[in-house]
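Subject: sequence -> structure tokens, single chain

Hey, anyone have a minute? Need the predicted structure for the following. Not urgent.
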Amino acid sequence: MISYRENLRVKSYETDINANLKIYSFMNYAQEIAGLHADSLGFGYDSLIKESVVWVLSRIHVKFIRLPKWGDDISVETWHKGSDRLFGFRDFEVLDNSGEQMILATSSWLIINTTSRRLQRLDNIMGEGSLGYNPRNAIKEAAERLVSPAEMEYTGKRVVAFSDVDINRHTNNAKYIEWALDWIDKDLVTKMKVTDMFINFNAESRLGEEVEFYRAMEVGNGNCGDDRGKCSVFIEGKRETTSIFQAKLKYTT
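Reply:
Had a minute. Here:
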């Protein structure tokens, strides 16, 4: 199976106050169909857990061309693009019911041992010769390694709750972007239109652990609706000195 596609209708609980798809709802779509496609190719969760290893998302870049709205019929497609020694690469495309692109994404995944939590090489699992390999690019450049701004303000903290944790017993990747949005000023987050989302998942957080949040805003010349404008918000979650995740959202208003 060279790619995997699902046709979906956007649910009310997947949308925000403007009836647009929440950007972390896309993250839920992505992890679900990635798992289903990997299962069909023989390197999904059920196959790997027998060897005490699992996939974890490391980096992702999502480009939002236009957000689906409540009730829209969309298709979500994914395919894998091979690997280097550590990263497995997977892209995504969301289309509306007329075939127009709405969301594009590229992601980088790692495999870790469930006991030691150490990274595993992908040579024998992924690669150009592996089943289902597809060199097609939704976004050509791999998701980037983020560097935190030098000056960031402390915004608050939270404790990882039961509702945040998934089958791998750590915070689910979609939760991090949900948390990040909660630390953006309400007057901005309700009107901002995210054009690009970059996330690095740097370390695990687990039930009962405390995560501290830091934020930096960037506004270039012109307003955020102007092509010359450059507006972004950077959110980092940390456990003491350890970076748990970094998220950069580029947006217009």
